[in-house]
Amino acid sequence: MAHATTSGSTRHPSLLELAQAGNCRALTYWMNSFLSPQGVDVQVLPATDRFLRILVDFRTPRQREACLRLRDRLVRFICYRLWTLNSEVISGVRIVARVAGDSRILWQVSVQINSPATARVRRTKQVTLRHQQAMNQLKFRTFRSLFMSSITLAGFFIGYRLFYGEMGRLWSQEAPKDAPMLAGSASNAIAAANPPRSEPMLRLPSPPGYTNFVVPERFRGQVVSHVDLPETEKVIALTFDDGPQAGTTAQILDTLKEYNTPATFFVAGVNLKSQPELARRMVEEGHAIGNRGWNRTLENGKAADPKAEIDRTAKLIHEITGTKTGLFRPADGRLDNELVSYAQEKQYAVTLWSIDSQDALVAAPLLLDNVLRNTRSGRIILLHDRGSANQSPTVQALPQLITALQQQGYRFVTVPQLLAMQAAVQPKEPQPQPRETKLPFRRRAVAVIQANALRS
After folding, report:
1. 254 part of the active site
2. Domains in the chain, number
3. Mean local confidence (pLDDT), 352-377
4. Pseudo-torsion of CA 73, 20, 11, 367, nearest 10°?
5. Which residue is catalytic, options 57, 242, 359, 384?
6. Among 241, 242, 356, 385, which one carries the catalytic annotation?
7. Is 384 a catalytic residue?
8. Most buried pick, 44, 194, 331, 433, via CB within 10 A?
């Protein structure tokens, strides 16, 4: 039977999306894509308590002792892969291992997966439980108060009836001898002259203390992709390109604010013009801003008027946020164009990156893997805040990325702060870096910069 397809058909979920939803077949296929080449097969079985059951078979013939020695490494690998999924339906895993063809169990272990998604589920359950407990306690207190009030009110009416009944009986027995006399007019009325209330003083908020995002003199006119810091200084810089975008940038700012994490946004002038409030929010919340040029969709990174491309964006940044920036990032990291030459002439620090998350190409789990396995102190991470907020891997992975790096002891700084730390550690001037004239791809540009940095 033929199946007709239309342009408006529903998008089919990817393998990683199915795995994130807890699909056992997708999880099995995804895990085996990593482990089968190593002679290990896994099978993921469903569980009702959000704890997956994973059966591990060592396919390659080997001694039982060798399989036992692999336990810790294999458990860490499986748990790390499940952690990168950041799934709300996977809170833990039970792993059972054996040698293929042998029914005896080598080892079994249970591990809890503490991802941001599961932590969010636990917090929601705790809040719901506390709310239910508070409501039950409130109902009990209300019932107790009504019960006690009803007893008090009943006693008051009974006492009232008895007292006035007895007083009426005594009054009827004695006739009044004198006409009742008025004790006089009412006592002096106290005019509670309320003093005139003073109007509260209206305090207008003072304008935020904006700071120019300047870079140390040694980096002006230079190309920078990372800095070399002592091992004791575990710092890293998050950078976001091509914003601001209405949905994506707002969610990224919300996440950065929640985790108290500063970052650097390289804004495109055409987007800045349409979303000025997001740029002001960036500065107000402690983030740095860099110049991305006016229009990032330039063909081959070339502009008809490089001066207008950079200066027009710089002027708009100043008009909207009140700041000036000494950072410039070329489109796709290309250095072989007049934009970079003009930026260096204007003493911008041409800021590239040393860790490419590839968030424009991969899903959130792979994004996490790309960053975490390449993280070093003094590195600059490339992310983007463009695209749909609901489908953006950056928005999905950012809470988990920040949490993982913080747990490894890293703290986050802006690019100007990172460069200032490098200048404080090594005050001498850097050697000029040779520039390539032909760099057709962003990866090649980054590789050249890193190679030059290593040679210096």
Report:
1. no
2. 3
3. 91
4. -50
5. 384
6. 241
7. yes
8. 44
